[in-house]
Amino acid sequence: MKDKRPIAIAITVGIVLIALHFLIRTGGKSPWPKDRVKEDSSQRLVMGTFGRVIAVAGDSATALKSIEAAFEEIATVQKLMSYHKEDSQINNVNRNAYKAPVKVSERTFEVLQRSVEFSGITGGAFDITVGPMVDLWHSAGQRGSAPTEAQLQQARGKVGFQKLILDANEMTVRFAVDGMKLDLGGIAKGYAIDKAIEAMRNSGSLGGMVDIGGDIRCFAAPPPGKKRWRIALQDPGEVTATFGSVYLLTLGLAESAVATSGDYRRFVLVEGQKYSHIISPATSSTVKELSSVSIIAATAIEADALATAISVMGQEKGIALIESLENVEAILIPSGPTPQLIQTKGAKRYIEK
Ligand code: AMP
Ligand code: MG
Q1: CA dihedral 286, 288, 292, 293 (to 10 degrees)
Q2: Residues in the chain with pLDDT < 50?
């Protein structure tokens, strides 16, 4: 069928992204014939970072329509799940779920359920109830001095996915302990990317890519003449304040997602020392063993949650976990002056150079 009907390809680039870890390497030149390329001029800031959507469609109206659908989906997820927006659904949960069960939307409930699933898989390394610890480290950064042992201990009592009570029939959330707080920062971007891809498929795109702050998923038709979408992994040691980049390697992806967690762009500064924004729920301290964790998986939600989790688990346990999961690969860079790549056995098939 496909062979008989040559398809005119229209691509619309929605956003110029300043990627945190990855950049699509088209070198600024589009591989598509000029008359079939349409560029959307708007830049969109989404979920506190930059977002980019590329749609490949039979005509440019369809490409544009699916880009709009993708951004709409991302905005919906952000409205529900943002930790920073006072009126988000998750903050309503945070304010009220100890007093009584709080009803949430299907999307929010799905993310909560998946989060608990990832807590189980990762032995609690991934835990969205980490909110009280996130707050402590955030104020530490503002104050310029580390949290006290007493504060950290108190926070530990309010953290733990087992204290989160989900009722699938009623679609409600409850907290078992007063002062609990959910933070979906380690998974919401991945979920938003998956929903955006779904929206693009539903609105007629033949292929595409969604990138939120360097977490990326692509599907189907890559740029014509190319077998896969090419994505470059930045060298964390060479990231500059002006977002200059040195690439460590290039990945070739098709129908898959990649997400990176790293301490080199997002961190808290306390007494001149950098602390990661990722926290070990068991100890309430910030993690330091790995400078960058990239996970390749079929969906962005898996890649996102597992990248955060492996940052907590460290190299040995992290690699062992990823090796045990089917169709998931990891590329890690331990902290230290000289970047060194550690990868799972199957990661090689995605590395182009
Ligand atoms: P990411 O950049 O995807 O690794 O997400 C990091 C964000 O996830 C942090 O800024 C926190 O909001 C949240 N977070 C920190 N530690 C954890 C953890 N252990 N499990 C789940 N989310 C976390
Ligand atoms: Mg994550």
Answers
A1: -70
A2: 1-42, 240-243
